[in-house]
## 1
Amino acid sequence: MLLAVRHSTRYLYDQPVRESVMELWMQPQKLSHQRLISFELEIEPAAQLFSYADTFGNAVYHFDIPQPHDRLTITARSAVETEPPPALPDGLDRGEWDRLKSDFVRGEHFDFLHPHGFAGPTAALAAFVAEKNLDELRVRDPFRALLDLNRAIYDAFAYEAGVTRADSPIDDVLKARGGVCQDFAHVMIAICREWGIPARYVSGYLFTDRKAGDRSDPDATHAWVEVFLPSLRWVGFDPTNNIIAAERHIACAVGRDYSDVPPSRGVYKGEAESELAVGVTVRKARAAVSEPEFLRISQPTPKPGQRRAQYSGLAYDQQRQQQQ
Amino acid sequence: MGAAKAKGADRGSAIDAPAVPYDEMRDADGAVRPQYASLAARIETLSADELAERQRTLERFFLLQGITFTVYGAESTTERIIPTDLLPRIISAEEWKIIEAGLIQRLKALNMFLADIYSSQQILMDGVVPRDLVLNAPSYQREMQNLFVPHSAYANVCGSDLIRQPNGEFAVLEDNLRVPSGVSYMLANREASKRVFPGTFRGAGVRPIDRYPDLLLTTLKSMAADWRPNPQVVVLTPGVYNSAYFEHAYLARLMGVPLVEGRDLVVHDNMVYMRTTTGLRRIDVIYRRVDDDFIDPLTFRRDSGLGSAGLFNAYRAGNVVICNAPGTGVADDKAVYAYVPAIIRYYLGEDAILPNIETFLCREPAQLSHVLANLDKFVVKAVGASGGYGMLVGPHSTKAQQDEFAAALTADPNNYIAQPTIQLSTGPCLIGDEIDSRHVDLRPFILSGEKIVVTPGALTRVALRKGSLVVNSSQGGGSKDTWVLTDRKDLQP
């Protein structure tokens, strides 16, 4: 499937800011079933782009804008050719659980087996697992158990934007029983790791197909989960849409949780309120890629107890976009 | 203290601490050890008044130099003069040879360990050090993985805490590979003791330490890229409120390099510059005295105002060098410490020249129950803490304190280690107008860049309260000059 993505991010500041420094995890990965045809980044005001590969092998781009500016826009355009992943079996044998316990698997995937940031055990998670009898799913082989878990999370939570934020802990989504793809991914990752299955967070895009029953927002970035099964290697599960990640999914970056791979993160200097708007379009290629509209204006609401520093030497954390 | 002595009678056999600490000045028969002969003879000739006068001279020197430190959490004044003892601690040439060889061996192995755990992780694959101990340590920085560090010198400045055991052997109590401090006191104590004992100092053949700032600068410059022939070095300080600010300023002055704060730096196009009155000037090497978490709000703690955003990416690209490298703390972690002898054997195929103190890891259930059963005899330390905070000295603790630690240990065993209470050696100190014995430790400073160099001197810290074993300046400790004597054989006839 030939897909073209246009991902626009715009920061508006009510006062000029300076010395913005930003990192981007926006380039689609180069994989056997995902060929990156082109990738372009456009920064306004203009800036010199640099890149590096992070710990997890993701391509990270970064830049700085020293001069005062009151807006910053980032446009990432990519074209990707995806193929369906190798056919999956209906199930595996239960010996797969033992293969997961091997020293090699546990050593090689150490980072994806331990709690990190948003994706870790909490009392609310334990209560949720008990309430839905999720641990009983483990009588089946790991692959079937994961399919059931994917469905259980899909069934238990409503897709609802605005309930949670980019920096919400999983307790928020567990309490509200509603949230967006980022939250569902964190819940699934936390449970997989409790089960001893390596699981990682995938940030990317989805070519949304409403007819197929997709419920995620077509105008936002997407996030899902990849789990490692020794017999199948990495397999993508998308609990937002109760599907296996396939040729409509475009993966950009993998990490332990959202905080490892936000589409953009940065800091700036200056006393200003910032306003973040994000627009994403994913289209079948060869059709014209239309300009996306800025759909959601997220107004920052200062969190209680989080005051800005009084002096201006400090760098302020840039707002981050939630993955939906 | 009386309670502690009474308890001493029923100490368990496994962790029996010999009752008699090693005396630095006198042997078991009460005879003065050779290295102390000239000092002991000089003291004999001085009256109490003369000693007190010299002590006042010493304190005036520190006051005039503005050599102060901060005690966090103390109610009174925040800036204090560090209590300094008049009488130097003296180490013979033979003893120093062992210390020096042991420290070089240790730092060599620890740098190899850091290079390994931030690249192929062979030592973890081979199961010599438990993987989760390293990879789950908060001080393990994944950003450092597969980065090129010149000469594999991760810990450019290391300050190791040594103690002398009752049998006279030196052992390593702690490695400090993050941002060790105290070297300014080593230098200042020397300046002061030259003034109060000028004749004895000249006659004793004390090895000089005043090359330290030069050696530090050479070490830092050796970390710069080859194609930067005249690298710009700076000292990065958190600012005037930091407890070691004096030291930051002192070292910058002695090296003749700028002292900067995070707000003086700017990162542009992956290069680091400092703001000067004549514009931006490129920086090559940053001797940072700011903790890992605070050096770059983009990569590490996002609420930090002490560093500079983008600094780490410039480092990653090789456009600037940060000394010590971020992530060195994982090698001085108190739980990893227990594995250092094995680390030395693994990389160098040698036995450790300087032994470790026996250490119980509370993460191991069997060791935890042993520690819990003997809390009144152990020194318990939080793995992540330093500076004598979060620590229980069993024999000097109350039942309430022990109960508090027992609860903490049970709740979070991974976070604690325990060591038998070691009787630190004692040395003569001027207390009031009398000479009395106090417990001392030894913090030498090791530099590693193109090569590893140990300065022949150290900071000797003193537990000024009688009987106390805690020497940290933040816990009422003081310091004194340390004389390392020249080997007479090395002298020209």
Note: The mean pLDDT of chain B is 89.
## 2
Amino acid sequence: MLNNLTHALEAGNGRHSDHIARDGAGNGGHNDRATRDGAGSGGHNDRATRDGAGSGGHSDRITRDGAGNSAHSDRIARAFADKKSLITFIMGGDPDIETTEKIILAMNEAGVDLFEIGIPFSDPAADGPVIQAASARALETGCTADDLFAMVRRLREKITAPIVFLTYANSIFVYGKEKFMANCRDAGIDGVIVPDIPHEERDEIADTCQKYGIAQIALIAPTSRGRVEKIARDSQGFLYCVSTLGVTGVRDEIRTDIAEMITRVREVSDIPCAVGFGISTPEQAREMAEISDGAIIGSAIVKIIAEHGRDAPKHVREYVQRVKSAMLG
Amino acid sequence: MTNGKFGQYGGQYVAETVMNSLAELERAFAHYSQDASFQAELRELLQNFAGRPSRLYFAEKMTRDLGGAKIYLKREDLNHTGSHKINNVLGQALLAKKMGKTRVIAETGAGQHGVASATAAALMGLECEVFMGKEDTERQALNVFRMNMLGAKVHPVTSGTMTLKDAVNETLREWASRLNDTHYIVGSVVGPHPFPLMVREFQKIIGEEIKAQVRELEGRLPDAVIACVGGGSNAIGAFYDFIADKNVRLIGCEAAGHGIDTDKHAATMALGSVGILHGMKTYFCQDEYGQIAPVHSISAGLDYPGIGPEHAHLADIRRAEYVPVTDAEAVDAFNYLARTEGIIPAIESAHAVAHARKIAANMPGKILIINLSGRGDKDVASVANHMGVNL
């Protein structure tokens, strides 16, 4: 048995090296998108390193341009270019699809830089009570991933900001990984954040994400000691920095040394870092954005939606405007 | 097995927040499973606190009545706290203590694992909190009271379907918010690696004892071993030592509730599909979008929409077979064993007894072992209710 365990550990390391090799090896298969979107930055092929070593060998460092490698990350990269990014999460289908769509449009007008849309799930084990309840409300209306793909397709005609799905692994896996990522690409989804796919399991969807040009956005937590380097190196789009232990939800105070977390990321990667979990006030958002590249607000907005239901768009807009001006402040 | 996988099943599908704690646990388990003094301490607890080895009892009247296979009952119901759960709990609580944890948390369905956890915590001086679906706290009120008596705090879980799967969700959330001093005693061969492997290692003593006992009594291996399967810890415990013995049939009995032609069941292998939940990839009862189905069983311990990843693998490679048993069949078997052998089985274990009754007649000259995973005192009220008797 000990042998098994040792093998497991060794094999884990092996897999890690595979990632580096593969990610460094080249990034084909998504140029169709770059062309269609006319992003034309061209920047995604030169994986220039920050330290400019130019050794020709594969470098440990990745640049913002090189962090992702297709149109998705061009859109995501633009969301972080020369500004602190305001990222918002809402649950798709809460209280219903029409209202979700209106809320996103309202937030777009209020200056949100990147949208996270949750796919409702029966067993959201990484979420606190607020988002659990939102998930349950959305499921109650019969909201499915297909409804959300259709909604994003409509939104894409009006919104240039990046849109990512925040979803549990099962929603991708049971739907069919290929079909899910193909639909993401067709609808204009730029990335996925899957809280229950840690680095050790990233191969579950890595190839499929790569194939369809969908950024696989990773998370680091205050407990990620010794893991930040490998996670940051493999993250695409941006890195989601979880501010506190536990599950999603509003917190009075964030005690984690976020700046120290970001410093560790910066030692290996220039990938944008956005801080989430527990942020609710405009002041918290500003503080977090000051020491990182952006702030993610979820439960605080979901609470407003829970309170106002179909009247939520104007209330959310007003709230987001306050946060945005605090961050610009 | 590599990477915590059994074939394609298992894995570590959990939040980043807990990954280092899983690694810490994996290291500690690897270390202490080779540590002679830890093993001696655990053996001592299993013998003198839990009462191992449990007996292998020849069910003579049942054998005569069914007129086929010779039937033995592996009496896990005679363990301290009344079920096989104590085997795993003593191992994990001792490990938690060695790791310097001062607090344990656990999910529970029927309450057997919660009671066992509360017991081990009391013994070892650990703080203990148990998460239990609200519906289960009502149908297993006696076990809630037992846990309180043992000094544990029981949290009724009101999210989702308010049963075992929701209790697991809530315990995972609690663990993610307090990792430093807390160990999560997972109660079955489920959850992220290393839990399915570790729990199996702590439960495999059941099969090892069966093997030694049946050799002593019969001079040979049995022809079949039958166990009930929810998450599957008593089943994997009974099966594991026989996996290499290809002639021993391994049969897991899952809860078919009102029947597999209805939507009120927990028959994961019969009707489920592969998915990812609770840290593992395995079979789940779910819809085409991956929403986990509300499951049903008269037995709170089998009322779980998934199954341990090693069972999924054993089914894939056709080393074990999994059969559905309905509520009604389980209640019949519950009463049957009480009257035939003077043993009231847990309603979970009654599922295994029920299947043995179906196949024993066609197995003349064979030896069939039923893993009687727990005792049925806790179930008397719910069986009475099922029979329309008002206590």
Note: The mean pLDDT of chain A is 83.
